[in-house]
Amino acid sequence: METEKQKKRVQIYVIATGGTIAGTAESSADTAYCAGQLGLDALLATVPEVKQLADIRGEQLCSIGSQDMDETIWLQLARRVNTLLADDNCDGILITHGTDTMEETAYFLNLTVHSDKPVILVGAMRSSSAISADGPANLYNGIVALADPESRGRGVMCCMNTKLIDAKDVVKRHTTDLATFEGDGCLGYVYGNRAFYNRRVTFMHTLYSEFDVSTIDRLPRVGIVYGYAGCSAIPFDAFVREGYDGIIIAGVGDGNIHRNIFPSAVKAASDGIIVVRSSRCCTGPTCLNGEVDDNRYHFVASQNLNPQKARVLLMLALTKTHDWQQIQQFFMEY
Ligand code: ASP
After folding, report:
1. What is the CA radius of gyration of the chain?
2. Residue of 99, 122, 134, 161 to mutate, ligand 1, most atoms within 8 A of C-beta
3. Over the stretch 163-175, which tens digit does the pLDDT of each residue have?
4. Could you identify the atom of ligand 1 that is nearest to the CA of residue 64?
5. In the chain, which end has fewer C-beta atoms inside a 10 angstrom radius, N or C?
């Protein structure tokens, strides 16, 4: 029988991208800090305890505040994660990331990583030099979850403030609070040295995703237009003029579009630009043929995706088709 010592150790790979988790301030009481200052080794040195859980290797992909995240880095990251996970010597990947756009990166990877091995993003709301910095605990919990066999096949997750939240649901809801990340319900949580799961994701992701970015070096251009009382059509029309392939409207309520924009949206859709209705509301779906007759105008309804995640799915959808009905189907399934 295999002894505990002979059991293969879990192999975790860390990809560092910067963010507040790697940020430092002049004083531990400062709110102002510089993101992405600590390199990977310094970051891992804040949690020496992880060596008991797994063998850890890693690399620094970039050192940015995630407000500067872009599609080029997403493509690099997705390719790197796929390559690493294809290796038998990698059991899971931890990505350290700024919290501002963590939900978008997580969702992008959820649709472009083709493996059932776990991929988890962690970050921090307080810089590494702050009083009660939350980075080390998030790092530790992320590695606990990656080392737990129960984490396989759940899609890409974020592990923040002990919660494990799936990439489709996760949203940064509060600008500064530690408990900022929420989902419609968490998949689970980390306590001590174990991950505890309460539910599974039913939408398509990772192994079942049909989006492949292995040979793509540029994603289609998709912009977001924000809705508000008395809003102007200037931003929408500018995206059209610039030749954008798709436009997401962060509409009001159930994805409703102001009359100042509506004619531009109808014209764009009839000219073959994909127009997706989403909502500026924090929660709730933007329903197909809800208050707007999408079938008549050939609009796509974002269903459960907020505007920034609808943009991620639309960019990937446009790598496969420009047919609005097929794209609507993607929004139902992913
Ligand atoms: N601006 C920072 C970033 O997203 C915030 C954070 O990491 O919490 O990189």
Report:
1. 21
2. 99
3. 999 999 999 999 9
4. 9
5. N
